[in-house]
Amino acid sequence: MAPYLPSVVALLVAALVVGDSASPVRAVLVLLLVMVVPGWALLDACDLARGWLGVGLAVAASTSLATAIATAQLYLGLWSPAGTVLVLVLVTGCAQAARGLRLRRGDGDRS
C-alpha cells in the first residue's frame, strides 16, 4: 500500500476546504477523509493496518475520531464543519510524521 497516500489525500482535502471549492470531488474526498484516512494513518503508524481487519479498524477509528472531534467542538461552542475536517487533516499529518520517525529510527521494517 502507498505509504504516503493518507497525507496526499489529507492535503488535497485541506486545499479544497480552505479554498471553499464547491465541487463533487470535494465531497468524495471529504467523505474518504472522514471515514478512512485518519484511522488508516494512525493504524499504519502502529503497524496495524493490514488486511481486511485493518480496513475495518481504519473505518472504525476514523469514524470515532470524527465523532469525538465534532462532539468536543460542540461542547466548547466552536463547531464548524471545516474546522472538523482540518483537525482530521492535522491528526493524519501527525500520524504520518510519527510513522516516518519510527521508520527513520529503524523501529519498523516496512517501506
Structure description:
The chain has helices at about 5-20, 25-35, 35-45, 50-75, 80-105. It has one domain. The protein has five helices and no strands. The chain is globular. The model has no long low-confidence stretch (mean pLDDT about 85).
Which descriptor suits the 3D outline? globular
Rg calc: 14 Å
The secondary-structure element order is HHHHH
Tell me the fraction of residues in β-strands, as a range. Answer: under 5%
User: How helical, in percent, are the residues?
Assistant: over 70%
Uncertain residue segments: none
The end-to-end span amounts to 10 Å
Total domain count: 1
Number of helices: 5
Structural classification: mainly alpha
Biggest β-sheet description: none
How many beta-strand segments?
0
> What is the overall pLDDT average?
86
Give the oligomeric state of the chains in this entry, treating copies of one chain as homo and distinct chains as hetero.
single chain
Q: What attributes does this structure have?
A:
mainly alpha; globular; 111 residues; single chain; 77% helix; 5 helices
Task: Compose a concise summary of this entry.
The protein has 111 residues and is mostly helical. It has helices at residues 5-18, 24-35, 37-45, 51-76, 81-105.
Topology:
Blueprint: H1 5-18, H2 24-35, H3 37-45, H4 51-76, H5 81-105
Helix pairs in contact: 1-2, 1-3, 1-5, 3-4, 3-5, 4-5
